[in-house]
Write a structure and sequence with these properties.
Layout lengths: L1 E8 L4 H12 L4 E7 L4 E6 L5 H10 L3 E4 L26 E5 L3 H12 L3 E6 L5 H6 L1 H18 L15 H25 L4 E10 L4 E6 L4 E5 L2 E4 L3 E3 L5 H4 L6 H6 L6 E5 L3 H12 L3 E5 L11 H13 L3 E3 L4 E7 L2 E6 L4 E4 L1 E4 L3 E3 L6 H4 L22 E3 L10 H15 L14 E3 L4 E6 L2 H6 L4 E7 L4 H5 L6 E7 L5 E8 L2 H13 L4 H6 L9 H8 L14
Parallel strand pairs: 5-6, 5-10, 6-7, 10-20, 12-13, 12-18, 13-14
Antiparallel strand pairs: 1-3, 1-4, 2-3, 7-8, 8-9, 11-19, 15-16, 16-17, 21-22, 22-25, 23-24, 24-25
């Protein structure tokens, strides 16, 4: 007879514990099962050879989940066979080496230590990675600062007089920096300090075999780490075109643009993607002249045509200049001024230049080729459904891989990679419902399939687009900019996708994401109760427009 100790996830009361016990006692080979709700854990006594996977499956069917604790076996193993905390069936904890210390890496470390691992994080830069330090956090503060200034200058109500606020860019930059430091400490440094079994090393890591990582430390020495599993979570960095002329100038990447302490008189921006648009609009609202230089006909060239067109119109309405169908052919910098010559012969002059032409993965110098880790043409690491690379035992997560480049995908992939590395069961990364938001104003928010994507996948899509001047909340806000679009399957009525262009569109799209994940039809969405007056009511109205003229409905009409 063997004893299996485990954690139980999903319990909310003592009755849940009794339900888990009942499920476990029904598994062949289980002699007894005791679950403690308060401790969120339990113990099973079972015959040697009892299938742990069968126990986990029975518990999952009851709405809960088992997580190995102590000497619990891994999925697919038999009781008494393997310890997921040990390297090769022994008693010492498994040692995982994680290269990187950003969102995906730290999420993986926390999951792995929950499962009993010893973890070494190797970071060559700043703890926390892109998001908290030079990405999501400071950019959204900058966007909000610009929004505040814009609202003061452009109140929507005639009874409130507009005025020009005094802008102190140095203080604004200090606020961005202070909040970054606070969140880095609270969400990364403190958590890692308080997590047993985690060691953080500073240095450059490279692979030397499928189980060895060599760390070049600051003093020049090297430290060799032997691991039971390796996770690469090195993230990405701004892409800078390979241009000798550009490299000799003090241009901004997104990092410099987010922490600049002076307001540029004229900011020239290369790029028409989300980084260029968010930062460009924010600086325009704070008082800078801004010119976007884009190769294509419109901004957001990879999204629906009217999305880029309508957002572009809104930005131009605020004074952002968009120069399309051109490329820079020459960049000069002299006496604090940039001179940019474009392919159409036009010359732009500005005191700041932001290069926002995408990002590339941090995979150079890791020794991937030497151990056989496969990458694509862009240098991204190719992973399978378990987040494992082409080399068994080496996993990868986040922006350095072929996965979508969102911080919440990085964290989720890190957690799931650690689960698989520890042999704690299959936990696939399901990207079927993946919402995304661009934090311009109006915001761009999307989830699911566009009309063209739905047709490519064999659906017969039906589309409805509802302008926000049909949404009561937008009308009482005196801000009816934008629209919401739903794509549904003609045969079943099921929602396939949703796009929102509107102020606070990111808050609206999550309800669409949950409806999509639940397999709801537009008819079901149209019959649901939505609070009045809210922006999310736009989803109900758009869903109703598949079958009726919403312009002829009374307020709150069902």
């Amino acid at each position: 007879m063997e004893t299996v100790n485990f954690f139980v996830e999903g319990m909310t009361c003592d009755h849940c514990a009794r339900s888990v016990e009942k499920a476990l006692r029904g598994v062949p080979g289980v002699i007894s099962a005791e679950v403690d709700y308060e401790a969120k854990s339990g113990e099973v006594k079972a015959e040697t050879g009892t299938d742990y996977e069968a126990m986990q499956k029975a518990v999952r069917q009851s709405g809960y989940d088992l997580r190995p604790k102590g000497d619990g076996p891994v999925q697919g193993a038999q009781v008494g066979q393997i310890d997921p905390r040990s390297g090769e069936g022994g008693s010492s904890p498994r040692h995982l080496v994680i290269i990187g210390a950003g969102s995906g890496a730290v999420a993986a470390a926390l999951r792995a230590t929950d499962l009993g691992a010893r973890v070494t994080l190797v970071e060559r830069g700043t703890l926390g990675g892109t998001c908290v330090n030079v990405g999501c956090v400071p950019s959204k503060i900058l966007v909000r600062q610009g929004h505040q200034a814009h609202t003061v200058k452009n109140p929507p109500f005639s009874g409130i007089a507009p005025h020009s606020p005094t802008i102190n860019p140095g203080l604004l930059a200090d606020e961005r920096t202070r909040r970054v430091l606070e969140l880095r400490e609270e969400k990364y440094s403190r958590i890692l300090r308080e997590t047993p079994g985690v060691e953080l090393l500073s240095g450059e890591a490279r692979l030397e075999g499928a189980r060895t990582v060599v760390v070049k430390e600051g003093g020049g020495g090297e430290r060799r780490l032997t691991a039971d599993g390796i996770l690469i979570a090195t993230g990405s960095q701004p892409h800078v075109p390979d241009s000798p002329v550009l490299a000799e100038t003090p241009f901004w990447s997104s990092t410099e643009a987010l922490f600049a302490k002076e307001l540029p008189r004229h900011l020239i921006v290369f790029g028409g993607g989300f980084v260029a648009l968010e930062i460009g609009q924010a600086w325009r609202r704070l008082g800078a002249e801004v010119t976007l230089v884009i190769r294509g006909e419109r901004i957001l060239s990879k999204m629906e045509e009217d999305l880029g067109r309508d957002l572009g119109d809104s930005l131009e309405g605020e004074g952002v200049k968009i120069v399309s169908r051109v490329t820079p052919t020459r960049v000069d910098h002299r006496d604090g001024m940039f001179s940019v010559t474009l392919s159409n012969g036009r010359v732009l002059a500005g005191d700041a230049l932001l290069v926002a032409t995408g990002r590339h993965p941090n995979t150079h110098g890791l020794g991937l080729d030497s151990v056989g880790v496969r990458t694509n043409a862009a240098g991204e690491i190719v992973v399978d459904s378990r987040l494992e690379t082409s080399v068994p035992g080496i996993f990868a997560a986040g922006d350095c891989t072929t996965l979508p480049k969102f911080v919440y995908v990085a964290a989720a992939s890190g957690t799931r990679a650690a689960t698989h590395m520890m042999g704690a069961g299959e936990d696939p990364l399901d990207l079927a419902v993946l919402p995304e938001v661009i934090f311009t104003d109006p915001q761009v928010a999307r989830v699911g399939l566009t009309e063209d994507e739905a047709r490519e996948r064999g659906y017969s899509p039906v589309v409805r687009t509802l302008p926000f001047d049909k949404v009561p909340r937008a009308l009482v806000n005196f801000d009816p900019r934008g629209w919401v679009r739903m794509v549904a399957d003609e045969n079943t009525g099921k929602l396939l996708g949703c796009t929102v262009l509107a102020p606070e569109g990111g808050e609206v799209v999550m309800s669409a994401a949950m409806a999509l994940a639940s397999g709801l039809t537009v008819q079901e969405i149209g019959r649901m109760f939505f609070p009045y007056l809210t922006m999310v009511e736009s989803l109900k109205l758009c869903a109703q427009s598949f079958s009726k003229d919403v312009g002829r409905l009374s307020c709150c009409a069902g």
